Amino acid sequence: MTALARTSTPLSAAAIARLVAFLLPLALLAGAFGSQYWGGLYPCEMCWWQRYAHMAALVPAALAFTGPAESQRSRMLTLLAALAIAISGVIGVYHAGVEAKIFEGFTTCTSLVKPGGSTADLLKQITHAPLVRCDQVQYRFLGISLAGWNAILSLGGAALILLLSLKALRR
After folding, report:
1. Residue 34 vs residues 11, 37, 154: alpha-carbon distances, Å
2. What is the pTM assigned to this prediction?
3. What is the pLDDT of residue 153?
4. Residue spans of beta strands (DSSP E) within the chain
5. Which of 73, 89, 105, 155: CA 20 to 30 A from 80?
6. How many Å apart are CA 23 and CA 70, to the nearest integer?
7. Distance between CA 102 and CA 98 in Å, rounded?
8. pLDDT tens per residue across span 102-149
9. What is the distance, to the nearest Å, from the Cα of residue 140 to the centroid of all Cα atoms in its chain?
10. What are the distances in angstroms from CA 144 to CA 30, 48, 93, 100, 147?
């Protein structure tokens, strides 16, 4: 056993919850943007909604690190991040349901067109923009769409954060 191992103390439940609340949306966003820019999987509108919730979760999760993990402020910020993560998971459930034709999705297609510029620029963006439908699965991993994986990981992560936070309150 090294000297470092003897002197280190395990993280508290509140510290682990705070860490999960920060690292989970960060990892899911990294995967989403990585699959977009390096994997060629363009996001649909509902994919963006899931990303926005994870982006929102990063703010309170990061702010939770500005004080002790056991402080009330840090715990509330961690729970707020968990709520945003759970919202992304709920959107993921809906999106996976649209992909499975359980729910009705959009009746119009969405694409990534940036407003502004001239009419010619706008027309060029429209004609060269990838058409991405929310009801079409672009990629499956182990038989589950990426929206499904987001739902599983986000809702599971939010539940873990909640359980760890409740455990920390009981101490």
Report:
1. 30, 5, 18
2. 0.74
3. 92
4. 140-141, 144-145
5. 105
6. 18
7. 6
8. 767 665 545 555 556 666 766 666 566 656 665 666 766 687 777 788
9. 17
10. 19, 19, 12, 10, 8
What are the structure tokens assigned to 140, written together?
Answer: 């499956």
Task: Identify the pLDDT of residue 98.
Answer: 80
Place of tokens 């954060």: 161
Main-chain phi, psi angles of 117, to 5 degrees? 85, -175
Q: Find where tokens 């919202």 sit.
A: 87
Q: Are 79 and 165 in contact (CB under 8 A)?
A: yes
- Measured CA to CA, the distance from residue 91 to residue 158 in angstroms comes to 14
Give the angle 92-45-142 at the CA atoms, nearest 5°: 40
DSSP code for 2? -
Lowest mean pLDDT: which of 29-38, 81-90, 116-125? 116-125
Contact 25, 71 (CB under 8 A): no
Token pair, residue 170, equals: 């009981």
